[in-house]
Amino acid sequence: MSERLEDIAAAIVADGKGLLAADESSGTIKKRFDVIGVESTADSRRDYREMMFRAREAMTRYISGVILYDETIRQKAADGTPLVDIIKAAGAIPGIKVDAGAKSLAGFPGDTVTEGLDGLRERLADYYKLGARFAKWRAVIDIDTGKGVPSANSISSNAHALARYAALCQEAGIVPIVEPEVLMDGAHDIDTCYAISKATLIKLYDELHAARVVLEGTILKPNMVLAGRKSGKVSSPEEVAEMTIKLFRETVPAAVPGIAFLSGGQEDEEATANLNAINAIGPHPWKLTFSYGRALQAAPQKAWSGKASNVAAGQAAFTHRAHMNHLAALGKWKASLEQAA
Ligand code: 13P
């Protein structure tokens, strides 16, 4: 495969393909395993992820790349094959989460800034040797307008960090996935989500330009525009599509090859239906696909539940969700295909 940043980015958003975000930190995966009653150990985390990476149909047809966590990129499958080699053998690209998490922003209660820039150049060189050709950095923007959250300082600090990260990635020959996640947990309406997401993306692209990041060699990983969960409203796919595309047309340069959404707590089918509605109102200047964690993994986690005898069922559940999201990335999904499964 070509190693040009532009070609790697194009491969990540190849028609109908998207990313599997399997980069949960050890703390987050423990929370997911607690729900299915599985103890989180290095081996159980390995077995679970190996199950997905060996789901041949999903990995070869629907998944362009996998975002890994530091532990996983160094791990070997039960038979001794590096997990990275299993991903590559399926024709998918290994990627790596490189941020060190969102931490409280001093002086701004309720706001966070993502850390992890110190030593990043050296870590990226190491990850490149381990096979990573793209990376991810997640900034977290919460919404609580009554409390002044997010502050302008939080938006600009996070955008600045994302731009420094992206420049370091490109220097290392790694495509940066820039993820400014505006959380959907709040009580806000869809217009507020739109306004905060707009301020966030304007600042982000200002900073990326200032840092001389080549946009053709980047991927944006954003939230969709929708009403916050605590508002009690669920935005319709048509509303989500209209507002999300309006936002991107106003803020995301056409030089950006692709946009791969996070699922952010949406239900599995909701995330698929929304992605489908977004593509159904195309054509758009960028590819629009998925980079889902929870919306791709909730079903296989449940089907697997830590038992070797359930590996085939877990792989089938993963393949089904990957297939549905593949169709949504093409604007060809229908709700009736879910029942047919
Ligand atoms: P979710 O799809 O579960 O939001 O995870 C995607 C991700 O990588 C968040 O950083």
Automatic annotation (TrEMBL):
Its EC number is 4.1.2.13. One of its GO terms (biological process) is glycolytic process. Pathway: Carbohydrate degradation; glycolysis; D-glyceraldehyde 3-phosphate and glycerone phosphate from D-glucose: step 4/4. It catalyses: beta-D-fructose 1,6-bisphosphate = D-glyceraldehyde 3-phosphate + dihydroxyacetone phosphate. Keywords: Glycolysis, Lyase. GO terms for molecular function: fructose-bisphosphate aldolase activity. Signal peptide: none annotated. It is an enzyme of class 4 (lyase). Transmembrane segments: none annotated. NCBIfam families: FrucBisAld_I (NF033379). Belongs to the class I fructose-bisphosphate aldolase family. This is Fructose-bisphosphate aldolase.
